[in-house]
Amino acid sequence: MTHVKKTDQLSGKVILITGGTSGLGRWTTLVTAAQGATVVYSGRNAEGAAETDRRLEAAGLKAECLPHDVTNEEDWRRVVDTVVERHGQLDGLVNNSGVSRLKSMDQMSLDDLEFLLSVNVDGMFLGTQHAFRVMKARGGSIVNISALNALRGSPNSTGYGMAKAGTTHLARAAAKEGQRYGIRANAVHPGVLFEDGDKASPGAIALFGEEGAQKFVQFNIDTTPLGRLGHPRDIGTAVAFLLSDAARHVSGAAVCVDGGRMAGEYMHHGIKSQK
Q: By the 8 A CB rule, do 206 and 165 touch?
């Protein structure tokens, strides 16, 4: 079920969200639409777009979908120009589209790495470049969806971490280059997220099996300082804040929405929290 709080925080703003046909992009589309923005989301999955539209309708919300390959420069020009032609402006871009391939160092091929860099880095660079093209006149906000792997080493995540680190640096560089135009740029780093609370996701079950997936869920709960898993809606809410005028003095930040996982080591040293 879709639960999003309706506000006017983004009223009057036109927002483009890539990868809105699933996961974080879908929830960011729902949250930003609920906060009053005119939302255009993009992607290549027609079936996923239909599900996003179904959830929007169920929540009494609207957004427009455009087909989009984020690795294609001409596609970026077409999508950005279409948004401006139809809505007169572009106030925010959420570079959400991304991919992962989790392999050990000795199993990862150069093709794997180039694929990760193409979608995660090249795609976000092109998006930022074309957003700058139309935002220079009136300013705007760009949010890159990165990952905790961008900020720390992680097993089987060398290529993915390298790519996501690129998206974080891109946001910082764009913040510096955008300062003269009133363009802000930030990166958001999601923690462990499940749509169904503490119920293992289909992806976790496919990877670890039923029993292993539940152990995986419990491990992540136990090692998150807030003692719970996040929901994709939490990322959408953080992104909406960064897109809003309430974040007018926030630029070049690496924002962790992770329940405190990046605050320090996982060991609790036998200390139990006071509840």
A: no
Provide the CB-side half-sphere exposure for 239 (13 A, CA).
Answer: 34
Residue 134 token pair: 């139309």
Q: How far apart are CA 166 and CA 124, in angstroms?
A: 9
Non-local (6+) Cβ contacts of 125 within 8 A are 170
pLDDT in tens, 53-63: 999 999 999 99
* pLDDT tens readout for residues 14-67: 999 999 999 999 999 999 999 999 999 999 999 999 999 999 999 999 999 999
Provide the greatest CA pair distance for the chain: 59
State pLDDT tens for residues 74-103.
Answer: 999 999 999 999 999 999 999 998 877 777
Number of Cβ within 10 Å of residue 71's Cβ equals: 15
Token pair 């919300």: residue = 61
- Give Cα separations from 97 to 17, 20, 154, 180, 194 (angstroms): 8, 8, 21, 27, 18
Question: Could you tell me the CATH superfamily of domain 14-193+230-261?
Answer: NAD(P)-binding Rossmann-like Domain (3.40.50.720)
Q: What are the domain boundaries of the chain? A: 14-193+230-261
Report DSSP letters for 43-59, one per residue.
Answer: ES-HHHHHHHHHHHHHT
Are 108 and 159 contacting, i.e. CB atoms less than 8 angstroms apart? yes
Please calculate the CA angle 58-78-20 and round it to the nearest 5 degrees. Answer: 25
Active site residues: 160
pTM of the model: 0.90
- pLDDT given at position 265: 62
Strands 92-95 and 14-18: parallel
